[in-house]
Amino acid sequence: MNLPVSSEILKKLRVNDVLYVTGKIFTARDSAHMKMRGMKPKELPFDPSAMGLYHCGPLMKSENGRWIAVSAGPTTSSRMEEFEDILLNRFGFHLIIGKGGMGERTEKALKKTGSVYTAFPGGVGVLAAEKIIHVFQVYWLEELGMPEAVWILEVKEFGPLVVAMDSYGQSLYRRS
Amino acid sequence: MDKKHLEEGILQLILKAETEIPSDVISALKQAYRVETGAAKIQLETMLANVEMARKKRCPMCQDTGILTFFVNIGTNFRATGILKQTIEQAVARATREIPLRPNIVNPMTRTNHGDNLGSYLPHILWDFEPGDLVHITTLPKGSGSENMSALGMLSPSIGLEGVKQFVVDVVKKAGGKPCPPIIVGVGIGGSADLAMNLGKRALLRPVGIHHTEKPIAYLEQELLDIINKTGIGPMGLGGKVTALDVHVEVAHRHPASLPVGVVIQCWADRRASMVVHSDGSWEVK
Fold first, then answer.
1. Which domain holds residue B225?
2. CA triplet B155, B156, B159: central angle to 5 degrees?
3. Is the confidence metric ipTM above 0.90 for this complex?
4. Closest partner residue to B54 among A99, A126, A173, by Cβ?
5. Could you report the per-residue pLDDT of A116-148, keeping only the tens digit for each?
């Protein structure tokens, strides 16, 4: 599946579907979310709308001035719960990759914006790094540090991603 | 004693811990893979593929290379005790540059990151003594995803063992998919608040699949494991049969008026490695 995902395809996605995505993604953890919450789309140095959002604080290394991902699995998504509905509504990205699931506020925003939350297994850092074929850019590295910076990455067949929260309000994390 | 040689040994210890998980954990993950289906099975399959890839490429299996805790048992006849702390610290800084490890240590007041994984009280070193002239070092790099789900309960003693079980299961349920299940649960019962947490963490050093030598404690471990695996949380919280690979309990005697219970959750990537240092400075990483 190529990024950005069309709204027709997003509508077809249901929980338990398995995807592999190719295209551009950006990483953001709590600090980047906090910064983005205070910004308008025009003020951002990058355009998230055509990318997937990856909850990830990667381990990177610089070789001959080029950044390479060493280990880049997902981080716990629930830390972003208090920001994600605001970001989904404001910045127009439609695919989230994370782990551990998110809460009701995000669930509602996914429904409203026709977006999905997908789960990549935590701890699977080396396999994830293998699927990162290019590091385009890094923003806020000095200010936020390596794990919290926003990394713009090109991924190829990144997955397996399990659709864990779909745009119809279904969630694999709800347990009665 | 050659400090550089010892530093190299501790570097190899950290490298092994970050890139290879012990065989007992791999066996338990494979067993979980056999019993799961659907999304849960996909998680385990991907985890096992990552374990293999990390070992072959000698890359940290998880980008959260954690906070490093060292359990150091010093033989009372070991002569070079004075260099151990500094050498461990130097090895951590070198491992951060050379393996590399993610610089995870920040100042709690200013959030500044010195980039070398060193800081006040960190790496955390727990010292103990043993007879003889050897030093045994075990390192447990632990990510924040699982550590954040750990909890202390200062329970009322009248609540009894049933209350202890309820507390442990509640902590696991509340954690859900966040600590990267299937988890390993370390439980410390008794002592003081800090001792219960310490025992909970030490309990994680015991290999997965090995119960406590005391029967009533082993029975409690199995009982807790069965209850936890009935919660349905499953691998990565996507639903399934295997929420925990094992539960390990360690106990300390306690004050009659207090019942501390420390629950330390470990992720499926249960990274740990050990080494022995001989009196002549030679070492083996196991």
1. 145-266
2. 95
3. yes
4. A126
5. 999 999 999 999 999 999 999 999 999 998 999
**B75 and B207 both lie in a single domain:** no
**Spatial CA neighbour of A74 closest among A117, A15, A12:** A117
When divided into structural domains, chain A yields a total of 1
Amino acid at A169: G
- Inside any domain, residue B98: yes
Inside any domain, residue B52: no
In a domain, B96, yes or no: yes
DSSP B106: B
Query: Per the structure block, which two tokens stand in for B139?
Result: 């390192």
Cα–Cα distances in angstroms (integers) from residue B68 to residues A51, A80, B14, B111, B253, in the given order? 35, 25, 9, 19, 28
Cβ within 8 Å, pair B178-A100: yes
Determine whether A94 is an active site residue.
no
Q: What is the pTM of this model?
A: 0.95
Strand, coil or helix: B213: coil
* Whether the Cβ atoms of residue B69 and residue B59 lie closer than 8 Å to each other: no
Q: Which residues in chain A have Cβ-Cβ distances shorter than 8 Å to B57? A: 126
Contact assessment for residue B30 and residue B51, using Cβ atoms and an 8 Å cutoff: no
